[in-house]
Here is the input.
Amino acid sequence: MALVYAQELFMFHVHSSNHGGVKGQFHWFLQAVVTACLATALLGAGFLQSFAVSLIRSAALTFQGVWFMDIGVMWLPGLIANGYSLEDGGLSIRCRRDHHAKAVINV
Here is the structure.
């Protein structure tokens, strides 16, 4: 599993050349969660009976899964929040106000 998390972390880190603004904040949060998964996977190899390591890894995996489900649901045309719109043939979501998009990501 550690190799899978390492590849996922690498993918989010080098996904694009511009990590500024909302996209950068989105990637930073995902990298933090994947780093927690990677660290607990490595720690789990040494501490097989550790409840704390298992609990943190489970929480990080749950958070990552819920995050991806939320982002996937956001792409459904009928469920896009007010003030957002699908653009580029459905490949991107645009927000009229940049500070509102940052607030949504932070929540």
